[in-house]
Specification:
Structural class: alpha+beta
Number of domains: 2
Order of helices and strands: EHHHEEEEHEEEHEEEHHEHHEEEHEEE
Radius of gyration: 24 Å
Shape: globular
Largest sheet: 8 strands, antiparallel
Number of helices: 10
Number of strands: 18
Helix content: 40-55%
Strand content: 15-25%
Length: 433
């Protein structure tokens, strides 16, 4: 059976007298996570504990006695720290700088043992018994995530996260909903897959457009993200010098607003990429592998790496609903290879945003060229994975005005007027967002 997962953010109507119970629950949940992180990270030069079972055996009884949390919430706190420790150990092995995980963001993880989920309310375990909270549902939820998933009986509740918005003093449940497809739906999707395989390539950037697709869509504004990030860092630096509690609270409030703005922007970019994929009947979306992207991409910082990974995950889970697969491919030479003739040389990249092939003189936007090469890499992988050497499902790359297969055969779309558009610069009608 194939599972489709959706996350729905819903505001909770928490009884005023029970708000403090949730805040105390968060404090104790983070205490479990931070205590575990300190224990697991005690000797990073030689050995860090990354086993959930070892951590629970060593710390469970201690944390149960130190907190008023239920067994399940203690276990969730321990496991959150171990997952973060695993990630840190992985970075250390690659020679990257990292430090002991620390948790201070307002969040508590709930599953069906520590919460009872209903269509109109939720019952949450706290340090002071259960608290029942109604969902704040819009008057007309039809067409919204709440209507499509939270209130939809075809979806079941999975592990969810409780968060708190300081600026509005509101609690939100980020509910993970799962739909199990029927056998008939699955067979339909499989049959559809055998008809064709069309790949949309996506190139990510630290400036200019955040994402450029092989169909010629320039999506998002990385420059605006960078600007807002710099302004935030400048303001935070000034406030930190004050050193007052008021300044600290202001910094935290600004950080929360910036984070929400960034998430909204990334969701919009993800939706735009999905629109391109659906408009061009794509079955796959290809991204370059994001591992060590800070080392590979000139000018990339930790902020960019976070944004790229979050965008990839947004596209990945949104694509599940449309049976579109999202994969990563090696980024090697995607910026140096000519997407028209295949000639690969570092001198092809004339500037940050200009590509001119030194062999065939093909000229286009460098990011657009890279996105087509990214799509081609996944095409080769899909083609080589076919069991039949005699053909199988057609593999093709989605371009501005049609599709291109591995043999260089171009097929214009129904609304295309000029075949040359398949290898030309993207038209202005699809540029920008």
């Amino acid at each position: 059976m194939e599972h489709v997962i959706r996350t729905v953010k819903v505001k909770l109507d928490v009884p005023t007298q029970r708000c403090n119970d949730l805040h105390q629950t968060k404090d104790q949940f983070l205490h479990c996570a931070n205590t575990t992180a300190e224990w697991a990270w005690r000797n990073p030069n030689n050995y860090c504990v990354t086993s959930k079972q070892k951590a629970e055996n060593a710390l469970y009884e201690q944390l149960r006695s130190e907190t008023e949390l239920t067994a399940n919430l203690v276990q969730k706190g321990i496991r959150r720290a171990i997952e973060a420790t695993k990630s840190g150990v992985s970075r250390l092995k690659k020679g990257d700088n990292t430090s002991q995980p620390h948790f201070d963001a307002w969040s508590v993880v709930y599953d069906k043992r520590s919460a009872t989920f209903h269509r109109d309310h939720v019952s949450l375990s706290t340090v002071n018994g259960r608290v029942e909270c109604d969902y704040v549902i819009p008057d007309n939820p039809e067409g919204t995530p709440i209507g499509k998933y939270l209130l939809n009986e075809d979806y079941e509740f999975r592990m969810s996260t409780l968060q708190y918005d300081r600026s509005t003093e509101s609690f939100y449940l980020h509910a993970r909903m799962r739909r199990t497809e029927s056998d008939q739906e699955q067979s339909t999707a499989i049959f559809s897959d055998t008809k064709h395989r069309t790949v949309l390539g996506v190139d990510l950037n630290v400036d200019g457009s955040l994402a450029v697709t092989s169909t010629g869509a320039f999506v998002g504004n990385a420059d605006e993200m960078n600007h807002r990030r710099r302004e935030f860092e400048k303001t935070r630096g000034s406030m930190q010098q004050a050193g007052t509690r008021s300044a600290h609270l202001s910094i935290q409030s600004m950080k929360d607003r910036e984070h929400r703005w960034m998430q909204d922007e990334l969701h919009r970019v993800a939706n735009r990429i999905l629109e391109e994929a659906r408009d061009h009947d794509c079955t796959h979306i290809a991204f370059e592998n994001l591992t060590d992207i800070r080392k590979r991409m000139a000018g990339a910082k930790r902020f960019h790496a976070w944004a790229f990974r979050r965008l990839y995950h947004y596209v990945e889970y949104k694509a599940e609903m449309f049976s579109i697969e999202v994969e990563q491919v090696s980024p090697a030479y995607t910026s140096q290879r000519c997407s028209s003739c295949g000639f690969t040389h570092e001198s092809n990249r004339q500037s940050k945003h200009q590509f001119v092939c030194q062999k065939c003189e093909y000229e286009l936007n460098a990011d657009y060229n890279a996105s087509k090469n990214i799509a081609r890499k996944l095409l080769k992988k899909l083609h080589s994975g076919q069991k039949s050497s005699g053909g199988g499902a057609p593999c093709q790359c989605a371009l501005t005005s049609g599709t291109l297969n591995l043999n260089g055969e171009f097929h214009a779309s129904d609304n295309s007027t000029v075949e040359g558009e398949s290898t030309d610069k993207p038209t202005t009608s699809v540029v920008g967002d």
